[in-house]
Amino acid sequence: MSTIIGRVTKNAEISILKNDKQVVNFSVAINDSYKNRQGEMVEQTTYYNCAYWQSPNVAKSLTKGTLVELSGRTSSNAWIGKDGEIKSGLNFHTSNIKFHGGGKREDVQNVVTEKTQEKKTFAEDTDDDLPF
């Protein structure tokens, strides 16, 4: 089992397969840096195509920019593209997702606003008269 930490590169998508199973597909970027022999900092980004099979409900939380910690299995694949060039990619079969931070700020604000409105509605329905 491997663990990776990175940022979601675009909003997750749910795919429905022929047997009605649902899979959440998303990609994660992992940034790394190191000094080369000349002492210059070199930035390197690794991308993983991720699949999560356990619950499609998590897709709404996997938005662009969200920092996630993923546990699962890594695999690689290679293919020949339409242009005839050899392509390769890294896949991550995700078994566990842990959220570390938000992506879009407006999404977080909308959730907070909705919860505040729910509390106000509940507070307005209460009676101030005591039963004794």
TrEMBL record:
**GO biological-process terms attached to the record:** DNA replication
Q: Which SUPFAM superfamilies match?
A: Nucleic acid-binding proteins
Gene3D superfamilies, A to Z:
Nucleic acid-binding proteins
UniProt keywords, alphabetically: DNA-binding
Query: What molecular functions are annotated in GO for this chain?
Result: single-stranded DNA binding
What's the protein called, per UniProt?
Single-stranded DNA-binding protein
Q: Which organism is it from?
A: Chryseobacterium shigense
Starting at the broadest rank, the lineage of the source organism is:
Bacteria, Pseudomonadati, Bacteroidota, Flavobacteriia, Flavobacteriales
- Keyword DNA-binding attributed: yes
On the tree of life, the source organism's domain of life is Bacteria
UniProt-listed InterPro entries: NA-bd_OB-fold, Primosome_PriB/ssb, ssDNA-bd
Q: Does the keyword NAD apply?
A: no
Q: Which Pfam families match?
A: SSB
